[in-house]
Amino acid sequence: MKKNIVISGGHSGIGLELTKKLLAEGHKIGLIVRNENRRKSLADLFDTSKIEFFYADLSVQTEVIRVAQNIKDSWDKIDRLYNNAGIAIMKGDRRTSKQGNELHFEVNTLAPYQLTIELKPLLLKSDDAKVVTTVTQGLDNLKLNTERIFNKDFTSGMKLYSQSKLAVMLLMNDLSEKDDWKSVKFLNVHPGNNKTNVTQNKDTMPAFIKLMVRLFFKTPDFGGQRLYNAGFDKKLEGENGVYLFNDKVRDLKHSLTSDDKRKLLSGMTLEKL
Fold first, then answer.
1. Is 109 left (phi over 0), alpha (psi -120 to 50) or beta?
2. Which of 52, 123, 173, 211 has its CA 20 to 30 A from that of 28?
3. Cα first-last separation, the chain
4. Tens digits of per-residue pLDDT, 174-189?
């Protein structure tokens, strides 16, 4: 059965591979991209008339709300929401968003969470809704440290990246336990280590990581398949509020405390979620 699918970060890397696969199957696709140039970059790859584009800078909270409203104005339901857009800045100074939040936290944590909340009405209209969020490796043993996220003197990009991915996973898992979300499944996916624009960016990745990427990382179609499996593999059909590694559920050693949740959501500068 054809699905209504919204993807952030579906224009490049593993997200692009996912988009191509879903298009080939005939699903209705909506891509959230930063600007018109992102749409034009896809025109040489496939017929973009088959995709509905929605534009937003996901580091700006007002734009997240606006793009969600645009989707709600245009679509009647969402069967799959892929929160795949993200950043990884492993060198340089700590960066902040327009709202004053650390940038990994803004883009990798708050943006997908806020987008999911805003699109709740369309997800609840589906009888088979899933929210698939791209995370990273090692989260099963990692403990959330909100002090690092909010400490302006903490500058380790690698640790801030991991914390932002852990934070969004814990927030999504928290939603999976709410009665008013019980018809929606939440899956958090480590897509493997893939060669993408993010992992090969010379301005944001130190030399040793770029060397590892070149020698050991897989092509983006590998990660795209992991994302696809989370949304469509029948073996994962009943899973909810889980962390997937190689298409298998990994148990988490730590959960979200009410205090951690309060601290994380204090980064929202707009009306309450």
1. alpha
2. 173
3. 32
4. 999 999 999 999 999 9
How many residues are there in the chain?
A: 273
For the chain, what are the domain ranges?
4-265
What Å distances lie between residue 137 and 99, 142, 191, 193, CA to CA?
A: 28, 10, 8, 9
Phi-psi domain of 256 (left: phi exceeds 0; alpha: psi -120 through 50; beta: other): beta
> What tokens appear for 175 in the block?
């939603």
CATH (residue range 4-265)? 3.40.50.720
What's the whole-model pTM score?
0.93
Here the tokens at position 52 are 């509905």
Q: How many CB atoms lie within 10 A of CB 70?
A: 16
**Beta carbons within 10 angstroms of residue 114's beta carbon:** 22
